[in-house]
Each structure stands twice: as structure tokens, then as C-alpha cells.
Amino acid sequence: MSVHVSSDQILEASLIHHEATESSSSSSVPQTKNYKRWFRLSIYVFFVLFCQPLATILGRLYYENGGESTYVVTLLSLIGFPVLILFSFFSQTRQPKSTDTNFNQPPSFITLASAYMCTGLLISANVYLYAIGLLYLPVSTYSLISASQLAFTALFSYFLNSQKFTPFIVNSLLLLTVSSALLVVNTESQATTHVSRVQYVIGLVCTIGASAGTGLLLSLIQLLFKKVFKKHTSSVVMSMTIYQSLVASCAVLIGLFASGEWKTLPSEMRNYKLGQVWYVVTLSSAAVSWQVYTVGLVGLIFESSSVFSNSVTAVGLPIVPVVAVIVFNDKLDAMKIFSIVLAICGFLSFVYQHYLDEKKLMTCNTNYVEDDAQI
Asked: What is the average pLDDT value for the chain, to the nearest integer?
């Protein structure tokens, strides 16, 4: 599970309405083999499966070799948002004109600015908590606990978006909760030599808090698209994502300078164990990796659906713990393996419910098109 939740499932929550509006027009068009489309899908899948674990590992590598600034790690997952501007331009050149016939008055500037500010600040707080969790926890433990954000998302959506608790959602909640709880109560075997018990507990609390904040954020964004934004198009989604990242980046930069951590960065670079060149390479590679991962995530949703995007994310779930065992010698005991299995099952249950919802939506749209044609 990534630190960069701001561009992970936030985009998925935002694009739920985009899929709904586009599916009605695409359901009446016969599907043909499009090798270019499958080529793009393959590239996006590679971006998601490769870049998300890479970015997380690079963040931990920064800590392991003398890096100490949580603000820097936080900024790495946000500051590369200009890449999204290029992707937005590229995707719009291939997107057909919207068939949305909703001509309601668009939100005012104050409303948009308030939405971007509130969600952007919440993003910065969540990512900062994730950075603290990554500092004090083993990468494998951190990534598995982060999976609990799906449970928090379903919980907050129940209150904010009237989401129904189906058997598959309840099953997902239970599995993800138990998966994270096993790691929380198993603190003795997870503690590392360079982290005290207090710091380990702080890492657990921050990671769980960030997961809860991410669930709240996803539900709020879905509510905004339901109540505030009148046009549910890819351009609106990308604009919101870019401005959110801009606000979040500015907030983290203010924190970096206000805390005084920026003063230690020159000495941190000089004393970096791998050398100054690798210091720059590590940070820049992590920033690029997060944004390339985001491009892959958005691309999968645009080319297919959020269900497929979530499925790819679920497939990539075990990658971070396995890589962490190889790179950082993390312990992969029986408890952690069992937690990985539970987390994957919880993910798949969550994704399967979304698949059923999308199938139901497509059936309703197809019936509507057929009825309209008969009339």
C-alpha cells in the first residue's frame, strides 16, 4: 500500500461518476479488438506494479542511509504533480467530447477553492502521517497496516455517501481489520534494533491514523462530486487532483521551512551513506516514481475501470513486503504471511463488490439504451 494515497484511490473515488456517465454511451457501441488500447493498458499495469513498490522502497532507503526529514519524504509523493499536467493534456487529446447533458451552473470560484484547499490540506496531513509510519515501522508491516484504508473508506462512505454494507464489504472489513490487528498486537517480534518500542508504537498510531484519514478523504471527495461538481468528466477529475497536489505541496513546504528541517538538508546530503549523488538520485527517483504510478492508476481507470485498477493494486499488494525482505532483511514470520493472505482476500472481496456494482450499472444502462431505441 502506498504512501501516496493522494493520487492512489482518491482518483478512483473521483472517477466513479466519470465511469457512470461514460458507460451509458459506450454500452451501445460494439467492442472491437484494439491493440493500441491493450498496449496502453500493459504500460499502465507496469507503471502501477513497478513504480508503487519502487517509490515506497526508495522512501525507506532514504531513511536507512541517514535521511531524517519526514517532510522531505512527504514532499516526494506530492511535488511531482506537474507530470499530471502533461498526462492530462495527452489524455484529453484522445478523449471524445463529453456527452454529459447536465447544464447546471458550475461551482463558483470560492466553492472550488474551498474544496481544493480543504482536501489538499487533509492530503498533506495524511501523507505526513504515512511518512512518520514509514520512518518507524518495517516496510512490510507498514504496507500491510496501510491496507486498512479500504476498511475506513467503506466505514466513512456508509455515513457520508449512504453506501450499503453488503456481505462482500463486511467480509472485506473483517479481513482487513484482522490483518492489521495481527501486526499491531505482534509488536515484540516486529520491533527493530534501531527503533525503540515507543517509536514503534508511534509509527503504528500514525499509520493507522493516516489510513483512517485517507478513508475520510476518499469519502469526502466522492461526496463533493455528488453534491458540488456538476460535470463528472476526466478534465474535472484531473484538475481537482492537480490543484489538490499543489495545495498539499505548498502546505508541506511551509512545514519544512517552519520546522527548520530545511537547515539540516545540506549536512544530511554530505553525510548520506551512499554519497551525495545517490542522495539526489534517491529523492528524485522517488518523486518521479510516485507520479508515474499515479499516471498508471489514472490510465487504467480511463482505459478500463476503477475495478480493474483496484484489481491491479490488489495484485501488487504482496510486492512491497517481499521486496522489503530482500532489500532490508525484514522478518517474514508466519504471522506476517498470514496477515498478507488476509489482506489480499480482503482486497479481492472489496474489488469483487465493486465489480458487481459496475456490472449492475452496465446492465441498467444497457436496458435504458434498448428501451430508448424501442421508443
From this structure: 78
Give the C-alpha separation, 55 to 51, whole Å: 6
Among the listed residues 8, 3, 2, 5, the one whose alpha carbon sits nearest the alpha carbon of residue 294:
8
DSSP track, 106-141: PPPHHHHHHHHHHHHHHHHHHHHHHHHHHHHS-HHH
Residues counted in the chain: 375
Stretch 298-302: mean pLDDT, rounded?
73
Distance (Å, whole) CA 364 – CA 173: 28
pTM of the full structure: 0.81
| Each residue's pLDDT tens digit, 31-90 | 445 678 788 888 988 998 899 889 989 999 999 999 999 999 999 989 888 877 877 776
Check whether 20 has a pLDDT greater than 70.
no
Do the beta carbons of residue 41 and residue 304 sit within 8 Å?
yes
- Alpha-carbon dihedral of residues 185, 191, 197, 201, nearest 10 degrees? -50
SS3 content of the chain, % helix, strand, coil (to 5): 80, 0, 20
DSSP codes joined into one string, 37-100: HHHHHHHHHHHHHHHHHHHHHHHHHHHHTT---HHHHHHHTTTTTHHHHHHHHHHHHHSPPP--
Q: What is the DSSP string of 235-304?
A: HHHHHHHHHHHHHHHHHHHHHHHHHTGGGGHHHHHHT-TT-HHHHHHHHHHHHHHHHHHHHHHHHHHHHT
C-alpha radius of gyration, the chain, whole number: 21
The cell numbers describing 122, all together, are 487533509
End-to-end CA distance of the chain: 49
